Amino acid sequence: MNVEFFYLILFVIAALYAAVGHGGASGYLALMALYGVAPKEMKPTALVLNLFVSMTAFIQYYRGGHFRLRIFIPIALASIPLAFVGGMIHIEDTLYKRILGILLLFPVIRFFFFKSPDDSELKDPQIYLSLIFGGVIGLLSGMIGIGGGILLSPVLILLKWTNQKQTAAISAAFIFVNSVAGLGGMFTKEIAFTHDMWMYIVCAFAGGLLGAYLASKKLNQDGLKYVLAVVLLMASYKLISSTI
Quick one: which of 112, 70, 81, 86 has its CA closest to 25? Predict the structure, then answer.
């Protein structure tokens, strides 16, 4: 394994995800899977990296006034306990890679086909739907070791509850709390981190800072989203095809 190239890709993934308001766990998981990191190390490692990158992204979007607490609270309240439960569930390695490969398609579909609604099109969220989606996404997040932002974002956009930047702000906060909850569930069982954990954190955090900076400078997010979507599409194909 070319370690230097791995760290470079990790840095780039963190930057791209942070620029669009995500923590990047799905990208880190795909990268680690392709490089042969054991799944028992992948899940907790990805969630720890999520904490650093999602918080960086959240602070940037919060300062811009894009966070909507009223929308966030019911979704988070339903997701946190189920993310904890999901973190306690073990999934067989082949099935794990298949599920991860499928989940990677969600942001690809969102980036290519879901247009961010204009403010005039926004609708008030429905509490019961917030609780349902929050709970389901929280459970999946804990099971797979992602923060859930790649699943929540398409829902918020499709239902027209938030615009693009509001979606990014809420997703970043959602990713952070779910990552904490998922890690909590994993700590109830035997947990293992990669021995290069600190180097992973340095690369991801530096990439997250760069991504947040690019977002603050109002760089064209559409271009970044398409690049990220192509990368995730290739990773999804690799993961799914390797289990067939």
Answer: 86
Q: Residue 218 — φ and ψ, nearest 5°?
A: 60, 40
Instruction: Evaluate if residue 197 carries a pLDDT over 60.
Output: yes
Give the separation between CA 159 and CA 209, rounded to whole angstroms: 30
Structure tokens at 35: 């490089």
Q: Where are the beta strands (DSSP E) in 55-158?
A: none
Over residues 191-209, the mean pLDDT reads 85
CA distance 25 to 83: 14
Q: Which residues have C-beta within 8 Å of that of residue 128, sequence separation ≥ 6?
A: none
Q: Which two tokens stand for residue 45?
A: 């490692």
Q: Which two tokens stand for residue 12?
A: 């780039």
- Taking residue 1's Cβ as centre, other Cβ atoms within 10 Å add up to 9
| The pLDDT of residue 162 | 92
Q: Identify the three-state secondary structure at position 25.
A: helix
DSSP H stretches of helix in 68-196: 69-87, 93-103, 105-113, 127-144, 149-158, 164-186
d(CA 24, CA 56): 12
DSSP 3-state percent helix, strand, coil across the chain (nearest 5) = 75, 0, 25
Model confidence band, residue 31 (pLDDT cutoffs 50, 70, 90): confident
Nearest Cα neighbor of 134 from 169, 90, 174 is: 174
Cβ(22)–Cβ(119) below 8 Å: no
